[in-house]
Amino acid sequence: MITFSNEYPKDWGKIANEVKERAGWRCEHCGAHNDRESGHVLTVHHIDGDKSNCHPSNLVALCQKCHLHIQAKYHPSQEFLPGMKPSWIS
User: Fold this and answer.
1) pTM of this prediction?
2) Which tens digits make up the pLDDT trace of 33-81?
3) Could you tell me which residue, 1 or 84, shows the higher pLDDT?
4) Residue ranges per domain, the chain?
C-alpha cells in the first residue's frame, strides 16, 4: 500500500522558490508569467500528489489556473492522449 503525506516539509518555501526559479517564474504548462493581477500566480504542484515527495522530477511550477485545472483532472498514471504525457513529466 502506498502512503501519501499531506504535510509539506519544513523547508517547503525554499523548495518551492527553487522550482519557480528553475521555471523562470513562468507556468510550465501555459507559459504565463507570475502575475497576480491576471490570476497567474505561480504555485508548485506535486505530480504524484505526495507533499513529502519533493524530488525535482515530482515538482512542476504551475499558475493557479493551470494547477487547479490539472489537479482536478490529472492522475499520475493517466495519459492525456494515447502514448503522450505532458512535457513537464519526465
Assistant:
1) 0.73
2) 999 888 789 999 998 888 999 999 999 999 998 988 887 765 555 555 5
3) 84
4) 26-73
Q: How many CB atoms lie within 10 A of CB 88?
A: 17
Residues 4-36, buried b or exposed e (16+ Cβ, 10 A)?
A: eeeeeeeeeeebbebbbeebeebbbbeebebee
Cα-flanking dihedrals φ and ψ of residue 58, to 5°? -100, 0
Spatial contact of 8 and 44, defined as CB atoms under 8 Å apart: no
State the burial class of residue 50 (Cβ atoms within 10 Å of its Cβ: 0-12, 13-18, 19+): middle
* End-to-end alpha carbon distance in the chain: 24
Contact 76, 49 (CB under 8 A): yes
